């Protein structure tokens, strides 16, 4: 009887473990989502850039969309703390760790005490929130972010998006011509505090002291609260590309990207 009881308990525990595992996997998969983004510069009605971002568990896939199938792919592996950038046209990849990005910004901080970048690295920010319109504003004397938010379908999306948005802002700051990420960090923090996901974000950059010259960039975001079968196939293909693409240094990766752009002009 004792052996039968032990066997029965083991069977029950195994069944519960399988059920719990299936439930966990289903729950995780049910909270995957995708975000389509279009970026507009100035008054242009045609987007300057479009991207598709897929949140799949603890890995986030960002596909730069263009007329060809060779748009750059960014894979953010949250558990491993790294970005992998893939260039499908050149079949190369490069890896940037969180530590590298933190060190890069620390270096920027140490070098901007007496430069024109100080106002971007140590901005004096004010913020406001309009509950009725779900609008968040972050302002300084040279830069304004205004975001209109929407409520997410599930709460986990809020911090997952904020984590990605913070780190991709760090990543983007390493590219020549981009701003430091600190004002965007504050926007992301306030959006998360209000439990909002972005519907649109407008950034207004003052190009002179009196505000006569401005650069306005607007992004529009469409969120679907599940991944499609096509999305999952694309994720699988990206995994295959990560396995076979040649690893190069970040400098070489950017150089190859520049050459690819010039060859397509």
Shape: globular
Count of runs of 4 or more consecutive helical residues: 7
Mean pLDDT: 85
- Strands of the largest sheet, in order across it? 7-8-9-10-11-1-2-3-4-5-6-12
Radius of gyration: 22 Å
Number of strands: 12
Overall number of domains: 1
Give start-end ranges of low-pLDDT stretches.
1-28, 259-265
Task: State the end-to-end CA separation.
Answer: 80 Å
Largest β sheet strand count, sense and barrel closure: 12 strands, mixed
Residue share in β-strands: 25-35%
Question: What share of residues is helical?
Answer: 40-55%
Which structural class matches the secondary elements? alpha+beta
Strand-and-helix sequence, N→C?
A: HEEEEEEHHEEEHHEEHEH
